[in-house]
Amino acid sequence: MIARETIINLVLAVILLAVPLIAMAFGEPFYVTLSTRVAILALAAVGLNIALGLGGLVSFGHAAFFGIGGYAAGILATHAFNAEPMLFGFEGTTSMPWIWLIALTVCGLVALPIGAISLRTSGVYFIMITLAFAQMIYYFAISWPAYGGEDGLSLSVRNSFPLINTAKPLPFFLICYALLLLAMGLFALIRGSRFGAALQTARQNDTRLAAVGIAPFNIRLIAFIISAMVTGLAGALFADLNRFASPSMLSWHMSGELIVLIILGGKGRLFGPLAGAMLYVLFEYTLGGITERWQFFLGLILLGVVLFARGGLLGLLAGKARHG
Amino acid sequence: MSTALLIEQLLNGLQLGVMLFLMAAGLTLIFGVMGLINLAHGSLYMIGAFACAVVASATGSFWLGLIASLAAAAAAGAIMEVVVIRRLYDRDHLDQVLATFALILIFSEGSRWIFGSFPLYLDIPPLLQGAVSLPGGGQYQLYRLAIIAVGVAVALGLYLLISRTRLGMRIRAGESDREMIAALGIDIQTLYTIVFALGAALAGLAGALVGALQSVQVGMGEPVLILAFVVIVIGGIGSIKGALIGAILVGLIDTMGRFLLPKTLALILPAAQAGMVGGALASMLIYIVMALILAFRPRGLFAA
To answer: Residue ranges of the alpha helices (H) in A119-215?
Structure first.
């Protein structure tokens, strides 16, 4: 028998794919953009979920990586557009695969020292120190005038992908959707691997993990870096979606939202981030249509979920998670 | 660079530090006694500032406003504790972060609803207007000196409260063993509410005092909240002494960094570039200091 969660997961994946297809058939590109937003936010949250859901590392600073990914796309595209070489004479580029590669690399390189310092602490200290690092990068971005400072960085055209016309909403959605599925595949792969088992043990009892000869620190650090890279990739797509890399992508509200997405959907679950992102964008769109004070009601809903529905949406629909 | 300017900047740093202490003291007290991380502490700061601005403009008296800010923040804190926070003590930090993040959304949008998006203004009371002369021939705002004095008085008062009174004894007992003091027959729920309201009142006081220097607006609490987090992480979470020293340290480093870094860099770089690099570095400076401190002492300077 197929587990109920698997069916719900399939339904969610099909809905996210069906909405833009149907919307295009009815000539409503707005809903395609909305779905793309869902896919990108879900991708960012899948990244965070590797650290938070599997490793129990409550990073309150993942906006840093989301923003770095976004700025990587913005900066590379700006240099390519103005035909100016960057530092050390590198050329800019408007090719998405290159931008993704660079965003992934830069996020990994930034996550290494941040993780190495933050992971020396745990609990509340970890939450606050990751928040502080993200703030540091945020303040750097707004006080460094070369790339827009507080105004952010506009992309004049969406970056390109070989053989696909990314300027149209639907192809761009499909790229984001494919990357989301890939990232969820990666999440499932990690969860089922020896590495994932060690990571989840580190969350539950790191003394035992150390006792069998695996250093929890290294496992956590690798998970933190992978997590940051996936979130950074989402950031690059987000900048392309809005054609804008803004400092608000780096703000601590963004870090909070990413955690909110995971909790709304269901912590540590494969499809939790997607369920959460769908719910979040749905709230944003419907509540935002009724009242401009929608964040007030979002706060109330979130409070209700945290206090009374701890499994999130998937917890409500599919019962308790079967894996730790 | 004159001595007067340097003294002025040092005093500004001290004033920022003292203000951060008012925020951080409540945060660290709440964490120390209840083990709770409260993101909504910045909202209490905002509530204090709004209460002061509204009452001061209605009655014309800053002092009534100040009393109102204490009362409003303490009341908001007590209500928050009874309705929401109480359910979070035995939850993990993730739930606490999220629930208090939700409270921020509710408080921020709620006050935007009531007061609108335009900032309110609060005047410095006539008694504290004017300036005093500094050694070396500068002038310094009397009001900022008064804030420093209030901060020192509060630090002293908190020290006496915690080390000399029965309530303080219970707070210290609560920090070392919650179950035990409940078993000894102390009404721990009331104690929690009192501690939370006390921390809230301090945040409200800070908001009201700063409200007269800046404008009073929605979202004013958030930058201060994050600085207060840096303070208590540096000082050691749960330690009031750590909060005091961390706050002064952060206040001085931040202010002096913004003042001195561009000037220092100007010695080796062209002026425009020095301003840019110096400004960017100065805005990151306290976070760099925090990272360095944590790299060597992961539980802060005065870990409880």
So the answer is: 123-143, 169-192, 194-204, 206-211
pLDDT per residue over B95-153, tens digit each? 899 999 999 999 999 998 888 888 888 888 888 888 888 777 778 888 899 999 999 99
User: Cβ contacts (< 8 Å) between B288 and chain A: which residues?
Assistant: 136
Name the domain count of chain A.
Answer: 1
Query: Which residues 154-193 of B are in CB contact (within 8 Å) with A?
Result: none
Q: Does B83 touch chain A (CB under 8 A)?
A: no
Residue contact B233–A295, C-beta within 8 A: no
Q: Do B106 and A300 touch (CB under 8 A)?
A: yes
Structure-token pair, residue B8? 């002025």
- Is residue A255 domain-resident? yes
Would you call A306 and B95 a contact, using CB atoms and an 8 Å cutoff?
yes
> Would you call A307 and B287 a contact, using CB atoms and an 8 Å cutoff?
no
Q: Is residue A323 part of a domain?
A: no
Question: Tokens 């303080």 correspond to what residue?
Answer: B168
Q: Identify whether A59 is part of a domain.
A: yes
Chain mean position to CA B133? 28
Give which of A307, A64, A182, A134 is closest to B290, Cα–Cα: A134
Chain-chain contact of A135 with B287 (C-beta, under 8 angstroms): yes
Burial class (CB in 10 A: 0-12, 13-18, 19+), B202: buried
Q: How many angstroms separate the CA of residue A73 from the nearest CA in chain B?
A: 22
User: Is B287 within 8 Å of A136 when comparing Cβ atoms?
Assistant: yes
Residue-level pLDDT at A324? 41
Query: By CB neighbour count within 10 A (0-12 exposed, 13-18 middle, 19+ buried), where does A75 fall?
Result: buried
Radius of gyration of chain B (CA): 20
Range of the domain at A118: 4-318
Q: Give the distance from residue A311's alpha carbon to the nearest chain B alpha carbon, in angstroms.
A: 11
Contact of A200 with A118, CB cutoff 8 Å: no
What CATH number is attached to the domain comprising A311?
Answer: 1.10.3470
Residue A324 inside a domain? The answer is: no
User: Where in chain B are the domains?
Assistant: 3-220
Per residue in B10-45, pLDDT (tens digit) is 999 999 999 999 999 999 989 888 888 899 999 999
Closest Cα in chain B, distance from residue A283 (Å):
14
- Partner residue opposite B291 with nearest CB, options A117, A140, A293: A117
Nearest residue to A197 via CA among A182, A180, A212, A181? A212
